[in-house]
């Protein structure tokens, strides 16, 4: 056999395996936790994780490589703030302090929204559409903070917040439907339709029995 034996692909460092480049995620105002998880995994794959974990001296080339990988993911203002640090660990810790604090503020805001949602009640003279709009507004605020408010939470909040006149339709829906699988839009539609039926009755006030009859007609939807 002549010449040097080529190493097997399994022994080639990951950064030299061009067929599967590892893309570093961009850091934003709302994705620090996911960013840190991805970056730690990528650095570990490249054999560089020690550069952000230990205080002891680490190979300079590894340090500069890690810093370069981190720097390319940062917004310009953050880059200017951390460029002063000489080690990758200092850079990493500085970003962590900045964004972990932001995460705590974000979580506090989300918790405030959860409390606000839990306290919401539909007023007797309020329309189902107007109240649904308030719930949708809470959902939009959750999204703007990077949170997710699932439909089943909104549906249950809607059903638990309506005045007594809606209880027959709520009871009917809960009896015949899987409300955890119901979309928020569908729930609002059913409550709104029942509300319209109440308005269109000949008598000014419907008795309880007539409400039950109307509600039972909806279970087949």
From TrEMBL:
Residues 1-20 are annotated as: Disordered. It comes from the Eukaryota. PANTHER family: OS04G0629600 PROTEIN (PTHR35317), RNA-DIRECTED DNA POLYMERASE (PTHR35317:SF41). This is DUF4219 domain-containing protein.
């Amino acid at each position: 056999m002549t010449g040097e034996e080529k190493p097997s692909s399994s022994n080639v460092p990951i950064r030299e395996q061009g067929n599967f480049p590892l893309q570093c995620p961009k850091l934003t105002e709302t994705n620090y936790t996911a960013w840190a998880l991805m970056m730690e995994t990528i650095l570990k794959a490249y054999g560089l994780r020690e550069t952000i974990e230990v205080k002891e001296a680490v190979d300079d080339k590894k340090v500069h490589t890690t810093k370069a990988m981190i720097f390319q993911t940062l917004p310009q203002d953050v880059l200017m703030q951390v460029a002063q640090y000489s080690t990758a660990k200092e850079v990493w810790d500085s970003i962590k302090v900045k964004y972990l604090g932001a995460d705590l503020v974000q979580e506090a805001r989300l918790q405030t929204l959860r409390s606000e949602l839990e306290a919401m009640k539909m007023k007797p003279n309020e329309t189902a559409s107007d109240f649904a709009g308030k719930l949708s507004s809470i959902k939009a605020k959750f999204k703007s903070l990077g949170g997710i408010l699932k439909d089943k939470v909104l549906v249950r909040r809607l059903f638990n917040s309506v005045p007594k006149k809606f209880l027959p339709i709520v009871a009917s829906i809960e009896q015949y439907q899987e409300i955890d699988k119901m979309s928020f839009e569908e729930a609002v539609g059913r409550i709104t339709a029942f509300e319209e039926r109440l308005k269109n009755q000949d008598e000014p006030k419907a008795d309880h029995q007539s409400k039950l009859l109307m509600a039972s007609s909806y279970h087949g939807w």
